[in-house]
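tool=predict chain=A
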Amino acid sequence: MARFTGRTALVTGAGSGIGRAVARAFAAEGAQVVVAGRRPDPLAETVRLIEEQGGKALAVSADVSRAEDAEALVRAAVEAFGSLDVAVNNAGVFRGGQPITDLPEEEWHTQLATNVTGVFLALRAQIRRMRTQPAGGAIVNVSSTFGLHTSSPGAAAYSATKAAVTALSRGAALDHIRDGVRINVVSPGATETSMSLRSGETEADRAERARAALPLGRVATTREVAAAVLYLASDDAASAVGTDLVVDSGATL
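tool=predict ok
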């Protein structure tokens, strides 16, 4: 299916992992994709992969914790492709691994700036544009099972930021659904990215740990998380408003 033909999708944190998989999935279903992140080289690789599969993409370097960058991303999408129909706010950072008493204040502020303020600034800019469009738009924020669903030793600060993303998303969804802007959340658990690797752990080690620890017996793939994002962004989910879709191999059951 090509559920997004003729639509423009903006994906932050698109230089690797879940963000790259989401961007490629949108392109495969017909969207023109703006891929955003801080580092230009990984973004260029995402664009190359999209174009290699016959899609159309534009890379824009941006730091979403800066209001001017969040606004510039929206302008770039509209100037390049004429509209902003879908946005996926995936950019996030994890700092920690130690108890909250040992977490440097700088690392707390780093996570807060990207994971919470960055989502707020991106949402604000995206909604302001989408509500002016006849067809409105759809936004999916990528949160985490760490937060409202569970946590882990050494992840208190990160969990706090991701719980805030979910709460912010639900509030924004209620505020703006009558403006034609539909907002939802995907909360991944352990996924096949570097973030789910423990210190010194290999992918084979992670696979062995997942076989014993997760009901599904494995971590989620980035393509599976992307599929959840595309569902919530699509017309198939037209009545999903403020939904938090968990993709975690059964870990929080």
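The beta strands are 8-12, 32-37, 56-61, 86-89, 137-142, 181-188, 244-247. The mean pLDDT is 96.
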